[in-house]
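name: query_chain
kind: protein
chains: 1
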Amino acid sequence: MIAIRVFDADNRLTQDTVVQSPVGGTASTTVTSYDYRLKDASGYYGGADQGVVTHSYQYDPSKAAGAGVHTDTSFVWWDEAKQSQTTLRGTDPGNPNAVYWKPGLSDFTYDVNGHLKQVSAYNDGTLANTRQNLKTLKYTSDQYGQVLRRDTLTGTLLGLGLSQRYYCLNGLSAIRRLGIDFD
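structure:
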């Protein structure tokens, strides 16, 4: 593996090129570019600098121009930046089925202390989705933010999901997990 990384004046990664050449296989190249600014009115990432990655674009230079994956991330600020929404969009002008690709959306909510409370993932890229496209992870945390319980709710079975409980001893995290789904 060969990696070529480009940094800006603030020592933040702006482009990462990775070349994989497995023995006896075909070499592949992946390029990822990173933006730290908000999207402006013209659709470019030239707005206010956020100090965190707000957009990334990953592509293979051997594929058709414009074929890749866009990741947009928005944040809420507590004592640090925390993700509030992440959207993934695939593009491929050379693929006639690309018009049917739906963006993915994850929506994060936090409790009054800034600890993760819930993550909802929507297959259709919009918060107005129907419940059958929804997967929700609900978290119960202690005052330090350690997860004590995670409930997984999927689609129309909201309320009939899987549950995991985590037990801590003397401040040590997760000495025991109880549940039936440990993905």
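note: The longest strand covers residues 81-91.
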